[in-house]
Amino acid sequence: MSGPIICFGELLLRLSAPGRELLMQSPRLDIAVGGAEANVAAGLAALDHPTAIVSVVPDNALGRGAVAAMRAAGVDTSRVATGPGRMGLYFLSPGAGVRAADIVYDRAGSAFVQANAFDWPTLLEGAARLHLSGITPALGPASAAHAIAAARAARADGVPVSFDGNYRARLWESWDSDPRATLTELVAQADLFFGNHRDVALLTGRDAGKGREAAEAAFAAFPNLTAIASTSRTVIDADHHRLAARLDMRESAHEADEIAVTGIVDRIGGGDAFAAGILHGLHADLSPQATVEAGLALAALKHSLPGDFSRFARADLAAFQSGARDVRR
Amino acid sequence: MSGPIICFGELLLRLSAPGRELLMQSPRLDIAVGGAEANVAAGLAALDHPTAIVSVVPDNALGRGAVAAMRAAGVDTSRVATGPGRMGLYFLSPGAGVRAADIVYDRAGSAFVQANAFDWPTLLEGAARLHLSGITPALGPASAAHAIAAARAARADGVPVSFDGNYRARLWESWDSDPRATLTELVAQADLFFGNHRDVALLTGRDAGKGREAAEAAFAAFPNLTAIASTSRTVIDADHHRLAARLDMRESAHEADEIAVTGIVDRIGGGDAFAAGILHGLHADLSPQATVEAGLALAALKHSLPGDFSRFARADLAAFQSGARDVRR
Amino acid sequence: MSGPIICFGELLLRLSAPGRELLMQSPRLDIAVGGAEANVAAGLAALDHPTAIVSVVPDNALGRGAVAAMRAAGVDTSRVATGPGRMGLYFLSPGAGVRAADIVYDRAGSAFVQANAFDWPTLLEGAARLHLSGITPALGPASAAHAIAAARAARADGVPVSFDGNYRARLWESWDSDPRATLTELVAQADLFFGNHRDVALLTGRDAGKGREAAEAAFAAFPNLTAIASTSRTVIDADHHRLAARLDMRESAHEADEIAVTGIVDRIGGGDAFAAGILHGLHADLSPQATVEAGLALAALKHSLPGDFSRFARADLAAFQSGARDVRR
Amino acid sequence: MSGPIICFGELLLRLSAPGRELLMQSPRLDIAVGGAEANVAAGLAALDHPTAIVSVVPDNALGRGAVAAMRAAGVDTSRVATGPGRMGLYFLSPGAGVRAADIVYDRAGSAFVQANAFDWPTLLEGAARLHLSGITPALGPASAAHAIAAARAARADGVPVSFDGNYRARLWESWDSDPRATLTELVAQADLFFGNHRDVALLTGRDAGKGREAAEAAFAAFPNLTAIASTSRTVIDADHHRLAARLDMRESAHEADEIAVTGIVDRIGGGDAFAAGILHGLHADLSPQATVEAGLALAALKHSLPGDFSRFARADLAAFQSGARDVRR
Amino acid sequence: MSGPIICFGELLLRLSAPGRELLMQSPRLDIAVGGAEANVAAGLAALDHPTAIVSVVPDNALGRGAVAAMRAAGVDTSRVATGPGRMGLYFLSPGAGVRAADIVYDRAGSAFVQANAFDWPTLLEGAARLHLSGITPALGPASAAHAIAAARAARADGVPVSFDGNYRARLWESWDSDPRATLTELVAQADLFFGNHRDVALLTGRDAGKGREAAEAAFAAFPNLTAIASTSRTVIDADHHRLAARLDMRESAHEADEIAVTGIVDRIGGGDAFAAGILHGLHADLSPQATVEAGLALAALKHSLPGDFSRFARADLAAFQSGARDVRR
Amino acid sequence: MSGPIICFGELLLRLSAPGRELLMQSPRLDIAVGGAEANVAAGLAALDHPTAIVSVVPDNALGRGAVAAMRAAGVDTSRVATGPGRMGLYFLSPGAGVRAADIVYDRAGSAFVQANAFDWPTLLEGAARLHLSGITPALGPASAAHAIAAARAARADGVPVSFDGNYRARLWESWDSDPRATLTELVAQADLFFGNHRDVALLTGRDAGKGREAAEAAFAAFPNLTAIASTSRTVIDADHHRLAARLDMRESAHEADEIAVTGIVDRIGGGDAFAAGILHGLHADLSPQATVEAGLALAALKHSLPGDFSRFARADLAAFQSGARDVRR
């Protein structure tokens, strides 16, 4: 299974105020490329896993620039198509101290949302995995259908599927008052689900408790699932969070000790870095305990870096996990 | 008639590559606020004319930032509403030397285009003038109807109307194969039209020659017109243009000698600066010859400044016209 | 009382070292517009209160730029005059970690200080309030006289007066060894005084205790006063302060719990944001308790933003007060 | 022959003073990735030709960053190895007006120069072409041997070889007083040689005249050659050059009219863009005349862009060749 | 006479808009250190002449930073004192294309102007030369007296004096309607005068013609003069000037051919670079013809560099004079 | 003993990623000048001690720029020679939050390492002290020999010698498996040694305990030593360290209380600032207790400033030591 991990989702350009300013406070924006699934792909590529992104961008300087950034990050972009529509954007006022970050989404009418069809058997050929998130189906009925088609095609071909809940109420509310059916269908194809007890409650329609209890409810509801991973975050202020993680297997539960994530530079993409770290553990054959620790470590490290992507290599992860905090000469 | 000159049109954010780079060449964008009618308003305000903008923006950091930039430029923004939809954007790779500038428009779905209604009698109360351009009606049927309603309301109230052709084939082609009826209706309300022989040919449906001939054809077709202004541009390269201008009155023709516009910093908004200069001449009671010379001078000066706006005061215009090119201490 | 809150004071340009550098460490400065009273005006405008600034600037690019920044912030600048003299400046090396910020003032000879006369009855016509601070009278005898004239004219016209002590020993020492008479005259006109026990001791010439005791001494000495507001600040390091506030009414005392202001981006203007928050409470008819909490919240938020101004809307304030610290999507 | 065009050469980081400053005038450097052969690869990739770079970089942030930039430019980097040694650098003070640009090379001891061996049969498998330049053999005896081995292996496998003279006297003088034998061996393997009459004189040991005469002398000396391309440059100042080009085939000569390259942004990489344009013509089956015009056009366009790379797509080239110099909307 | 060339004058900070913007167009300023005499000192130091500056600055971050910049430029700052008063500033909107640069001076009340006394015998001990300009005496009566005292002390000690007219009408008009007496006294002490026919007319009180005629009038009026140098500038636009120069000795006249100074980056300090080039010629024992050519060449080169200082070494000057305009590798 | 403190060591350019980015994350680098001994010289000069650096740089823009930066910092650079070889560089990804900083050294082949000979009697004439660090001898056998020659010459001339251990295992391992002989020889010449118990163990070949015990072992082994200074650092994360210090005299021990160094901006050069602070104490005749407190205070302050240098004057040190953490107006 040496083929790439395939991530399917929208590429976004993130346009953020520089420094610790608000948007439009000074006449400048910093650009980064993001999108939940792209972030996972980039994070995995930095850890030396072959990855590819399946997406659609407009055939203009923005679309080409986003694809170039993915290539720079080491992600195979040969499965990215161009199509009519605009580039999905989001505008960010980064948080600072006691002030929360603020996002203005501007993704309506994107080329990704307007995509007609994907040839999944071809796109997934030889893949080591398909990774999806709950953002794609939330974008609209066509995107939801594409996500389901992808997950079914993968399962049919024996390609493992991972699904990150990433529940965004505002996206769903704009077109579908009950996302449960769609999400259930997607999780049903997955062996690995990223979600906490709130996601499980949404999927199962009932409160099944927290932690292990929620995991067991999910295992019961979704027979294909073999692993459930989640983080738990306490926000002190924009610069200081506390982050813990757990990974539930059918037969065992694994927790990573809470980390004080101080001096936060950029919190966006922290959850995607966690997903990348967990997938790294699975595909590098780490133990479940080592896997959840790698996931949490990568998530914590991501907070120290501007941009949506985790750019950490295995050596960086190892250094962090061995306690390196002072200058590495 | 000491009320403001009212400009009606969309506010756009311009996001441009820094330096002489291409978009996405480095991860940064410079922001400016633009839009043809906003540029005219800002140019007039810098020349100490009371101006106001009528527009609609989204109620988010981008819309508020655009409005703040208009206020900073001295334009009354009390007639700007907020509404559903996004902020209209355009992305610019500035030209340099032998390379032409390149624009990616991203204005579909804007709050301005989605605007429902404007209360023109109130908005135009006490106005010294209404200024429109051909971009607004090209945005779609609702915007076209708003533009016509505005022009008619102004004429009904005795508010003079100026209309800048600004013909953009790509916008019209997307929804209306024959813009002639709409444009004719708008020019019919105007006392001042900005357009050259190509615009006149489009409006009258026939080639009526160039220069004075075209102007006379337009005067014949549009009895309310009292003045027609236009520039003529020769592009040597992205840094060097030659620019001339003419102003036709019913009884007389006035030409401004061609200027070598060298060392161009930013060519966008040059035509809007010309319109501002002409309107300045009219509202400051300059002679037609002084008016066309002011228009051409302001257009030339604009090319020396980053951003869409002319920011030149009367003293700057006078210094330029008196030949100042070396350091003013 | 729908007229603007009128703030009277000098507009300053703040020129600060970028990043966390010292002045002149690299050849670049960041510009912001400030001045205690301008900061209050901008903070109030961001909260949707009509505000206007009364000031004098030089008729050059710096003066015009400062006025444009005020307009951008939503403040009515129609009462700003131009006059002989220079633009007041201050140069800032921002603090960082264990290093305190450092300011080089350069405001001698400013157009504001050289101002001859203000036509207060006209300037205050229809005003909802006049806001002053102790910096203006400290600038010299003419400025002190202007401040007193303004306060008296306001009281004579029934316009409420607020006065922020802002005691700056270095300014007073340069020309007046005993500011008590001047300050007493100003506080005597005010219904609202911003000051703590040290200010009260200065005004009354005796130590009247702290907190409520000081407030009662001030109420006794100044019969027009109805409210006294103050903050109490503990500085851990340049990035971490603790901030509490109190608002004393004649009949009641209101305290806002201390906030840990961590990850400080820019501490300048924090006190002015507090004043803006208190004035917001008064003019939005909040209860005294809600008012002091709004003042403290706005003061805390200001520390998260570069520049002298609070730029927070009511929604931002509400989000902060409801505990939002993580990304607002 | 749909395989990639393989470019073999050193990847360099270019560290240049920002704006029009001298190195170290302000404490900042702009980074670009360059190297003659890398520039050709990037230029070709932008024109949609499959390209790959064969090189060696250190296994550190600089080496990885250089490789990422090549990937972003669309070049296949799977043939780039890591090895001991440093990253080759060069420092640039860009020219401006009457001041010439100035380069400080810092490439001694690089990982590329220290490379031991290349497995050419594998590296060249399926290649559409091997492209080399005279810089690689000038770096030292090992690099010269690698270049010769590459060229011989290509010819042995039927892979066409192109060689760009790029004669750098200072590099040769440091270790080999007579580069003629090495260069002759390399040109002997080539079907396409980039060089002018001075290169031909160096190779043949005699002055064979200019233009067509020089080309015929080269064709006589090197029976494998089928095409010789060269530019001719007149430098007016750092911002204004004049550039012409010729392409000699065995049976015909083709000249492209001199272009005034005005408003130069960055002259570095202009020759490499010419090579990319010529190779584009050959591999896109353009006529020799169209090929030399494409080469000259791409060379001219490159001067308008910061960085070593040509980033122009076929549409950009076509727009330039059709005369587009004003804003493309 | 191996001691330093002593330059006496005010150190200024120049705060300029970045890029080609107007002041306050974006919230950033670039800092450079300038002042006519400081520029001459820096230009000479870059050419390896020992130089020292005599000046007074405030004892704050700005004064210290200005002195550090002089030290960085290689100028001995041990004769710079600190004193009460502010740092002299000037604000610059750089010119671009058809738009002239614009300066806002802000030097009133500077520490230099407030300086009490200079101990000239000590300050001039061992000096190779004293260089002054007409700006210093124009700053006010005390500065005029200091300049005269310096020139007299130098002449008394056998230290040659050079004086650059640098006539600034606006400075003189503010306090002295007839600067002729002061300037005459200064030129009377000089062996070298920088000035053209207008300066000579001002000094002699009559129009003595141009070029050689003016020089001979000056030689007649000032018996100590042995050389008079001047440039002649034609301004095409802000980016393109034409510059010629002449050097008149008592017995011979020397002209340097006009240079097209294109692609101008920064015109400020061009005249000071000319003075540095002439002084370089004198102190390096160049012939008068070589001297005037060096002066003109250095003046032309200065226009290519941001900031007030010429930073060119002798090798740079030689390269320019030998015609180098393309990349120096 | 009013001559300069002479620091002998390599000047390095530090090229660091801007903001909190990784190297090559965006195409820009910030430049600072560093090198352990240069940092000490700059730190002492900022405290008004005459200092000079002895070093060798290449004769190019980088070498000249490094020397200019030293001059700007107030260090006498007349003892810096130029020579063949390159400029020593290091590339820095600054740390942030939980992520450690990372350094890529690139100093092989530098002009300093290739230096042939130093004329120590001349270079040390009139010196108040010679300061060395363990980095210089670690660079290679020639540098080790130069360091020893310098230390011996100083002792022979009665110039006190200080030596900062600065043990860098990676440098030594590349050429000398047993640095003990070299280091012992150097410490033997010193009156002041900067090192902790690990350094003492390395020098004496045995574990002599910590703190006072280690100091006494060193005093016993090196009879010329009169003082030993060291810091003790606890790293919480990249932004938060705890720092304590001790100074052992032969007869007494002095400790400075641990400081919480929060909000760290730049940790590089912290140890060199400590050395500068201790040397300041010695040369300003502070008591040992005041000396160690000054050393620790300067070390802590350095963490708040970008770049390798401490730029703090005595007044800044005093303000910090008196507890100033809030804005100094």
Automatic annotation (TrEMBL), chains A, B, C, D, E, F:
A Pfam family it matches: PfkB
GO MF term (any one): kinase activity
InterPro entries: Carb_kinase_PfkB-like, PfkB_dom, Ribokinase-like
CDD domains: KdgK (cd01166)
Ranges of residues in domain Carbohydrate kinase PfkB: 5-303
Domain of life: Bacteria
Keywords: Kinase, Transferase
Entry keyword Membrane: no
Stated family: Belongs to the carbohydrate kinase PfkB family.
Protein name per its UniProtKB record: 2-keto-3-deoxygluconate kinase
Organism in which the protein naturally occurs: Sphingomonas spermidinifaciens
